[in-house]
Specification:
Layout lengths: L6 H21 L4 E11 L3 E2 L2 E2 L1 E4 L9 E9 L8 H8 L5 E4 H4 L6 H27 L7 E4 L10 H12 L13 E4 L2 E2 L5 E2 L4 H10 L4 E5 L3 H6 L6 E5 L2 H13 L8
Parallel strand pairs: 5-8, 8-11, 11-12
Antiparallel strand pairs: 1-5, 1-6, 2-3, 4-7, 9-10
Helix pairs in contact: 4-5
Length: 263
């Protein structure tokens, strides 16, 4: 048996499930991570009391300037990101809302993700060493390089590791520093043949770089547009594609001879 509802009562009853759905949408966890500028580290110096780059089998130079690798800090894999968090992140320049799958492997536990990031860092360090020694024409059997960077995972420090090794062993090739005494920051993966790859999060990394004193930022060429989007004032972008061309750009920047590409 059905009873007839008046229009106001019918609307009120219909509104109940709609309100419940809206409340669920607002507070339900969403498949996003919220990221912000993270720490940077000078690969030519120490990080948490330990030298980042240690070389044996060849004399290492005393260097001036800094080569700062950059990071982003994202909400942990098990953090519940809700709709208000997402909306807040969209309207802030010091945060970015990213699909969780773009930050962390899909479906993995926190422990598995940490292990994955550690493995990526180790592979990146090995590739960076091979790329740098290959560029310098040195044999890995004769020169041993140790890389240590605590509490950082993933492959995006590869380029800066390679540049740090080159600066410590050869500088600019003419007894000068590859940095020219500047604070230079950047990001990018690197392959053993010296090819530089994109990493993501560059708009946040440029903010971290500027915060920590950098005046130059090395960015994978494919990500120039993203880097320009929120570029801090006074930070110069140099697009990079290979280790060799990056070294050439830094030498040209230092000496004033030759062209330095820009985004």
């Amino acid at each position: 048996m059905f009873s007839r509802l008046t229009r106001p009562r019918a609307l009120a009853v219909c509104a109940l499930p709609v309100a419940a759905l809206l409340a669920t949408a607002v507070f339900a966890p969403l498949p996003f991570s919220v990221a912000q500028p993270g720490m940077t580290a000078n690969v030519l110096g120490e990080n948490k009391g330990a030298e980042v780059i240690t070389i044996s089998g060849a004399p290492a130079r005393d260097t001036r300037g800094q080569l700062r690798m950059t990071t982003i800090e994202a909400t942990s894999p098990d953090t519940r990101v809700s709709l208000p968090d997402v909306i807040d992140g969209w309207f802030r320049t010091d945060q970015a809302v990213m699909p969780r799958d773009a930050v962390y492997p899909n479906g993995d536990s926190v422990k598995e993700i940490e292990q994955h990031n550690e493995e990526q860092m180790k592979e990146s360090q090995d590739a960076a060493t091979q790329a740098a020694l290959g560029y310098l024409g040195l044999n890995a059997k004769d020169v041993e390089v140790s890389l240590k960077l605590a509490d950082v995972g993933g492959p995006s420090a590869g380029l800066l590791f390679s540049l740090g090794i080159i600066d410590k062993l050869d500088g600019d090739g003419s007894d000068g520093d590859l940095t020219g005494g500047r604070v230079i920051a950047g990001t990018g993966t690197i392959a053993e043949d010296g090819t530089i790859g994109a990493v993501g999060g560059v708009a946040l990394k440029t903010q971290a770089a500027k915060r920590d004193g950098a005046t130059v930022f090395l960015v994978p060429k494919a990500e120039c547009g993203d880097a320009r989007a929120e570029l801090p004032k006074g930070l110069r972008l140099i697009p990079v594609t290979t280790l060799k061309s990056t070294v050439n750009s830094l030498v040209a920047l230092e000496t004033g001879k030759g062209s330095v590409p820009s985004c």
